[in-house]
Amino acid sequence: MESTKGKAVLFSEMTPPAGRENDFNDWYDGHHTPSHVKGVPGFISAMRYKSSKGPHYLAVYELSGPEALDHEEYKKRKLTPDDPTYKMLKSVSGFTRYIAVEKFFKAKREPLVKVMDASIVFCAFASIPIEAHREFENWFDNEQVLMLLDCPGWLMSRRFQIIEYDPERYTHLSIHYLADESVLNSGLFKKARDTDREGKLSEENWFQPHLVTYQRRNTRFLK
Predict the structure, then answer these.
(1) Does residue 214 carry a pLDDT above 90?
(2) What is the Cα–Cα distance from 3 to 102, expressed in whole angstroms?
(3) Which of 84, 92, 146, 183 is most buried (CB neighbours < 10 A)?
(4) How far apart, in whole angstroms, are the C-alpha atoms of residue 208 and residue 49?
(5) 163-198 pLDDT per residue, tens
């Protein structure tokens, strides 16, 4: 099977209108997501997730690169949506849209097509000043991820540079793929977050990551 992982992602969150969650999912699963993955060059695959804290949803579209969003077909669908899409998008709330380019990833020794469909994604957003990018990225790539992958059930970690943002001006996104949400309560996870380098970073006033966790809700949309 071809890889379902791209070199960039479109990361989009939405909350359906009250009382219309089923309508929202029917539209997203039956129309919105497949029309992008199957109809827009550069869209490789997509997965949808749901928050355990309420009716809040995430879609992660895997892209061949950010240039996929410059294609005329994508621009046409975004700027001139069909009637069902126009009406639904006008009624949702909690909307976010981040375009991010993958800069680093590391996975355990499992096929990536399996890892990509992990049950849980644990996502961290951060706003890092440019003068601290190298320090932050070196810590993430060479210390934190290695310790996280020691946690049973921690399958893969990816680091992205955000190049377009809405609404928050984050610079970095990490997406971690987990077999189960209980991994986040493990002693090894706590140990990975209690190192001298992370302690030093946490003293900086900019080191305030925004964390979100989502559960996979269906099968992957493929080309």
Answers:
(1) yes
(2) 15
(3) 183
(4) 24
(5) 999 999 999 999 999 999 999 999 999 999 999 999
Q: In which residue are the tokens 């892209």 written?
A: 63
Residue showing tokens 């791209």: 6
Buried-exposed string 203-217: b where 16+ CB fall within 10 A, e elsewhere: eeeeeeeeebbbebe
CA distance 146 to 149: 5
Model pTM above 0.90? yes
User: Which amino acid type is present at position 209?
Assistant: P
CB of 24 within 8 A of CB of 51? no
pLDDT band at 2 (very low <50, low <70, confident <90, very high): low
- For residue 104, give both structure tokens: 């680093």
Round the CA-based radius of gyration of the chain to a whole number and report it.
18
Could you tell me the domains of the chain?
8-222 (3.30.70.100)
Residue type, 144: Q
Beta strands in the chain (DSSP E): 8-15, 43-50, 57-63, 93-107, 120-126, 154-164, 172-178, 210-216, 221-222
Query: At 97, which amino acid appears?
Result: R
Before 167, cis peptide (omega within 30)? yes
Pairing relationship of beta strands 154-164 and 57-63 according to DSSP bridges = unpaired
What's the distance, CA 51 to chain centroid? Answer: 13
Torsion of CA 143, 3, 125, 24, to 10 degrees: -150
